[in-house]
Predict the structure.
Amino acid sequence: MDTVWDCIVVGGGAAGLSAALALGRARRRTLVVDAGGQSNRPAHGVGGLLGHDGRPPAELYELGRAELAAYPAVELRNGEVVAGERLREGGFELTLADGRRERARRVLLATGMDYRPPELPGVAERWGRSVFHCPFCHGWEVRERPLAVLDGGQDGPRRALLLRAWSDDVTLLTDGPAELADDDARRLATLGVTVDERPVAGLRGPDASLEAVVFADGGGELPCNGLLVPVTLHQRSPLAQQLGATTAAAGLAADAVVVADAGLTTPVPGLSAAGDATGAMPSVANAVAAGATAAAFVVHGLMEERADGS
Ligand SMILES: Cc1cc2nc3c(=O)[nH]c(=O)nc-3n(C[C@H](O)[C@H](O)[C@H](O)COP(=O)(O)OP(=O)(O)OC[C@H]3O[C@@H](n4cnc5c(N)ncnc54)[C@H](O)[C@@H]3O)c2cc1C
């Protein structure tokens, strides 16, 4: 543990790798620790990322890692940060799952979020393929086919109207009695969205494909090739809290997200955060941008600190 890193980046997804690239190019001694569980790994491809549209996620992360190899200041380690603390003299000490402890002047949390779709039979094996939470990511792959939105909540009508951008054949499945506001019912009717109240029991189709939604109690089936489901996002570990970060409720996040300013620095001196963990609109493009922004502010801070002789 002789090294004091300029920055430890926790997480090597889009946000963390992008941050490490900027830090490496600025010659800052950077350790990236990554557990390799990027949230979009089950997906067929990264939808909507300029220059990489449709590229399998694992390939994108391999490319990112390969780019980092050109920058000697960056070390990438497969592993997990299991605990962290702020040091009285400034900076941080992080403990890895293999028992090693690492010290750094700055820590950048790029730990992503744990996405949880509904626990409906058939969802897990189709997740990120024919069952998805984001039509911008996966709508194109099932366009112009029978699609459905599973959502008996307030958001259901809004999401069904959105999905109509990808198909003329969209059904809103309320999985029980629909309680639609008059405005919602009118807008759904205008765009030809059918509302189906039958309780949903599961999904049918070979492998990761979807052919039909199956209703409970012999209620029959609805032909369907793509299903939009609601999702909740959860923090992956208590690391942010251990380091003193403030959290707040936001968007899709069921657990609170890490609070950070426009430069993605948190109120804790030396602690930054980027990507899904901060509650940014979840997308790979946003995570890449956030990582680059956070890293730029880290480098500014480090150089000012050095100029001040601390
Ligand atoms: C199924 C699915 C499909 C998606 N498809 C798309 C798409 O097509 N297009 C799109 O733009 N967006 C898509 N998204 C959203 C997109 O994947 C996320 O917005 C993006 O991955 C966020 O990047 P991130 O770097 O913040 O987090 P992640 O990509 O989740 O990366 C975080 C990394 O940190 C690691 N980590 C966490 N905690 C620790 C720790 N304590 N120690 C070490 N490592 C740790 C994780 O293992 C992981 O490797 C999809 C999401 C899901 C769930």
Notes: Helices lie at 14-25, 57-68, 135-138, 156-163, 182-190, 239-242, 284-307. The mean pLDDT is 95. The longest helix spans residues 284-307. The two ends are 20 Å apart (CA to CA).
